[in-house]
Specification:
This protein is an alpha/beta fold. The protein is 35% helix and 25% strand. A nine-stranded mixed sheet has the order 9-8-10-11-7-12-13-14-15, with helices on both faces. Strands 3-2-1-6-5-4 form a six-stranded antiparallel sheet. It is elongated and about 80 Å long.
Length: 404
């Protein structure tokens, strides 16, 4: 069928659909099926083509149009919309261009508004950039035209319906059994841990997996820009999410606001989804005021680079001497875990290092695990996470009854 014919059929269905009440999905699909059946008889459309047409029309009217089938494909991890004409997706670590496109810029705009309609977000000319999430927990970033010069963009980071656990990461060779066992002990013992890595390296997934080791009875507060974490079997869990200001005078609620509030909610663990700025100071202060076992993530190129990034983020919020900031880091952060994507697009734990001590004004890292590459076989990077050191600060382990 020609695109114009499909557009006309869609408009005809929309005009005749009973909108005096809120029709259910089943009712809309049944009506679409009836109209498409009549249309198919006059155009001699085959059964398969008719089913595809019905699904397309339903997605166009009730779902997220052409990208709905990408959202429903569990093997796809990321969807990138570059204007109405170009859609890309990531599958098995490779990026492909989708053969379909939005019918118009206006339709893309409708889909964007539909996406953020169920979240506490707003996007318009006055506020053209927004982070939000879909009902299934997928993370969305939207930049409207003309800030996005070639058309409004959407980037959707999908998450598996069943959260990935540490056992899954071991099976995928992202981490070794020995390293996972050590992290299990350290999380239970209340070590403060920072997970670092680049975009798409799996920081949120790994943070989620780490959280499975938190004892079930503990009270956990999670703080995120857009809620993504999926903590399993944690009954005493409070999830907090930021809020942007809008033109109606609604005041913003920032990560910093939520951390300060969380400290008054009797938390045993505070998990900050990602540190990007001055909130790093509040995270460090929480780690230094008895909230052991706190977890967070940040963008960095290595464990050492994560320390430098922390220093810079703290300086965004307050003018403190570097020595004072470094003392806060050494006192608060116990462990750094660095993740990366290798040439074969696999996600691996590359380093695990202990924040050991201050010496001559510098933070000393004690590397415990390091990924050693052994070569490439059939396009797959072979290697292992090898133990290269031992934990030095074992006080928390001893108090928790563990032998490091």
């Amino acid at each position: 069928m020609e695109e114009g014919e499909i557009t006309n059929l869609r408009e005809e269905i929309l005009a005749e659909l009973d909108l005096t009440h809120e029709p259910k999905d089943e009712e809309v699909y049944r009506f679409i099926s009836e109209k498409t059946g009549h249309y198919a008889k006059t155009r001699l459309i085959g059964l398969k083509e008719r089913e595809d047409l019905e699904r397309f029309l339903f997605h166009s009217l009730r779902k997220l149009d052409v990208i709905q089938e990408l959202l429903e494909d569990n093997s796809i991890t990321e969807i990138m919309v570059n204007g109405s004409d170009h859609i890309f997706y990531e599958k098995n670590g490779m990026i492909y261009e989708f053969e379909k496109r939005f019918s118009s810029k206006e339709k893309l705009g409708d889909v964007i508004q539909q996406m953020i309609g169920n979240s506490n977000r707003m996007v318009n000319e006055a506020s053209p950039i927004v982070d939000a999430r879909l009902a299934d927990g997928s993370r969305i970033n939207i930049v409207l035209e003309p800030i996005a010069i070639d058309g409004s963009t959407i980037c959707i980071r999908k998450f598996p319906r069943d959260p990935i656990r540490m056992q899954d990461l071991i099976r995928m060779e992202s981490i070794s059994v020995e390293a996972a066992d050590m992290l299990c002990m350290l999380v239970k013992a209340g070590y403060n841990i920072f997970v670092s890595g680049g975009t798409g390296s799996g920081k949120t997934t790994f943070l989620n997996a780490l959280s499975q080791y938190i004892p079930r009875e503990e009270r956990i507060i999670t703080i995120e820009d857009a809620a993504e974490l999926q903590l399993l079997d944690k009954p005493n869990l409070v999830r907090l999410e930021t809020r942007r200001a809008n033109t109606d005078g609604v005041a913003p609620i920032t990560i910093r606001d939520l951390i300060k509030t969380a400290l008054r909610m009797r938390p045993e663990r505070i998990i900050v989804g990602e540190c990007r700025g001055a909130e790093a100071l509040d995270v460090l202060q929480a780690m230094n005021t008895g909230h052991d076992g706190s977890l967070s993530t940040g963008h960095a190129n290595s464990c050492g680079d994560m320390l430098s990034r922390m220093e810079m983020m703290v300086l965004m919020g307050v003018d403190l001497p570097l020595t004072a900031i470094r003392n806060q880091i050494v006192s608060g952060v116990d462990l750094l875990i660095h993740l990366g994507r290798l040439r074969d697009k696999s996600r691996r734990v590359l380093n695990i290092a202990e924040v050991s001590e201050m010496k001559d004004g510098q933070i000393i890292l004690n590397e415990i695990f390091r990924f050693a590459e052994k070569g490439i076989v059939n396009g797959h990077v072979c290697g292992s996470l090898e133990k290269v050191g031992h934990l030095r600060n074992t006080e928390k382990c001893v108090k928790a009854g563990y032998e490091s």
